[in-house]
Amino acid sequence: MRISPKKSQIIAKTLIWAVAVIVILLLIFIMAYILVKGLPTLSWQFLSEVPRDMGRSGGILSTIVSTLLVTVVAVVVATPLGVGTAFYLTEYTREGRVTRIIRFCAGALAAIPSIVYGLFGFIFFVIYLKLGWSVISGGLTLGVMILPTIIRTSEDAIRAVHPMYRDVSYSLGGTKWQTIVGAVAPSALPGIITGVILGIGRCVAETAAVILTAGSALRMPTSLFSPARTMAVHFYILAREGISMERAYGTAALLIVFILIINVAANILLNKFVAKGR
Amino acid sequence: MDNRAKINIKNLNFYYHDHQAIKDVSLDIKYNEIYAIFGPANSGTTTILKAINRMCDLIPGTRTEGEILLDGKDIRSPDFNITELRRRVGIVFEEPVPLPMSIFDNIAYGPRMSGIKNKVVLAERVENSLRMAVLWDEVKDKLHSPALRLSGGQQQRLCIARILALEPEVIMLDRPCAALDPISTFQIEESLKLLKERFTIIIVPHNIQQAARVADRAGFMLMGTLVEEGDTDQMFVNPREQKTSDYITGRFG
Q1: Pick from A58, A95, A231, B20: CA 20 to 30 A from residue B69's CA?
Q2: Is pLDDT at B3 greater than 70 in this prediction?
Q3: Residue A14 belongs to what domain range?
């Protein structure tokens, strides 16, 4: 049977629309479900008190603080390393064996399941470096985990910079470093920040890698060397051990709200920054 | 006009991998003249400009032979500072490329990189450069708005102003009006005629008529070879070489 071009056009359009609608509905459904189940649990007490009785009562303040600390450590470690690697790959070296090897490794690292990072972090940071289950072990492990993402997105962003910007900067008497700082980096910054935000999202949401490296202690962390339980780990434990489904949903809802806030804030910042140049 | 040479090019050969783009070219460019290097596409005109301020060093797989002297000094000798060379010999590219920042920051980019931080000095440089490039009156009220919002003709004059802010000695322009309308082209040509009082100018025009309109002297390039050079008045009326005559009269191109 032959389908006329006009008909195939209509069929294709309908199919693509249907797929898009299904995906969007699915996403909205998941978000709405968690928010509807979780938001009623949220209260000032829930946000401002430390958990009591294994999380059955009290709040989740210590897990919020732990999440922030672990994420900050990860981002502070991974951003300079990742962005530096990206600039090295794009600006300081010609394409060749070395760049291929680095890129292959970064690609492979990106595809490794997070529990493997957890295992690595446990053996290397927790045991070998004797950092114990701590904020710093968890943060470093997450830093290693998000490194490939940051390298990849930064590299793409730097490559997307108008090639003439470099020529213009050199022709105005710029050195290589001045050219990178003055002409390349500002144009690549939005893309680089996008990569870092993706990394933050993964840190905030990570469970497997953190539970093995930061532990699951409910106490408020007092230093980078205290054990910590992040929000994601907290609701995983609440749900799995049947402690309180209600509170698990509450924590999950808050996590979603956090991620939304980070994304929206980053978007606003980026638009402001980009608008200055255009 | 000062009759000494500002730039001497002696037996210049240039290669992109195995392809020879410039074949044994020798020519002198004098102080305060407008010198046009013209010819059909891929004749090596742009390559000569890029060799003069060593922008070609940035292209992998290229090789230069011969001598290029700026005020008698070999620009390719190891002790010749390359960033200083590019400040002294500025280049305006065919496509106007404002950096994605404000008009002011675009013009101040070069001076800032040379280490000037004083705001008064920078503001003065920016104003003077914009005036010389005949753009000041159009942009003086929006110096801090993005340069990418300017029209094509304004962007190209911005690029000229950006070079002028370096206080260069030589200005090279590579088909600066190729993408511009006749009015913008006229404005740029008029400003070039004023600028030659203070600078030495080398232009690769996008057509022969532009060479005839603005240049004092010109060189005709074909397939990497310098076919003929001389005063524009003489060359466009009474060329010595048959090939020049054929090109000027439009027999090929």
Answers
A1: B20
A2: no
A3: 5-41
